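Hello, quick one for you while I still have it in my head. A protein chain has come my way and I'm curious about its shape. I'm sending you its amino acid sequence along with the backbone structure tokens. I'd be grateful if you could look everything over and explain what you see. Here's the protein in full, and shout if anything looks odd to you:
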Amino acid sequence: MELYNLTGTLEFLLLGLSEDPEMQPILFVLFLLIYLFTVLGNVLIISAISSDSHLHSPMYFFLYHLSLSDMGFSSTTIPKMLINLQTYKKSITYVACLSQVSFFFLFGSMDSLLLTVMAYDRWAAICHPLHYQVFLNPCLCRCLVIVSFFFSLIDSQVHYLMVSQLKFCTNLEIPHFFCDVTELLKLACTDTTISKIVIFLASIIIGFLPASGILYSYYKIISSIVRVTSSSGKYKAFSTCGSHLSVVCLFYGTGIGVYLSSSISSSSKQSVVASVMYTMIVPMMNPFIYSLRNKDIKRALQKIFTQITHLTVKSINV
């Protein structure tokens, strides 16, 4: 088969979720609402943490950056898909595809590592409350976020370089709504053995190791909580990590679902549906989980809404 070497003019076709023209407007409205809720929810979380001095603690410092990462993660895939649905144009350039791969792994890896750092924060708060400020001083918190970004950037660039080395044939149709690396490997005409090994190793470093760290942290947390004698003390300890545990289950649960659907099933549609949960629903749900289960966040949001109401009333009276 003929190889494409002119990467500047190379374009892929993103087949998306459905090729039915009648479904395009429905999907456009649905995913537009999901994207707006994602951005609005995360912006509110960021605004609440920035404006309330009571939320200037390590846990909310990490949540602040998780919200930024979630917005970046959603913005990597959804806007392009919305444009394709609205214009009925399914093409994406080679350069845009590489950029999408790079940012997808940058923000996806950042989410995984930040959730691990937040698990460490909960372990320090529950198992070593007297040394909490020592274990998580402001300098260490900043360093943890910087290190998380550094490793995410490395993972992103590894995938970027790997995809940039692939040679593609005349079949350039991707049965997905974004440039999924697994589908790109299927389209490649060159040997992809080394690329698959690289993906496997990167998955262990960015996926398995952080997940193991989270499991170990919660093993220590549960062991510590079990030793608490009062039921109110147990409830208070569990409530402090309930939101984080919910987000972890949602993030890794959908991530495992994407992996299993692409590995076990030969149908690309099942993988696409699982990817919708992972790339769209999870970033949208995170702000709601933290705001609904956290009194401090709800109090800060109420202050913001009150200030907005007062400013609106003043502007109307003027």
User: Anything to note?
Assistant: The mean pLDDT is 85. Strands lie at 11-14, 91-93, 173-174. Residues 174 and 183 are 6 Å apart (CA to CA).
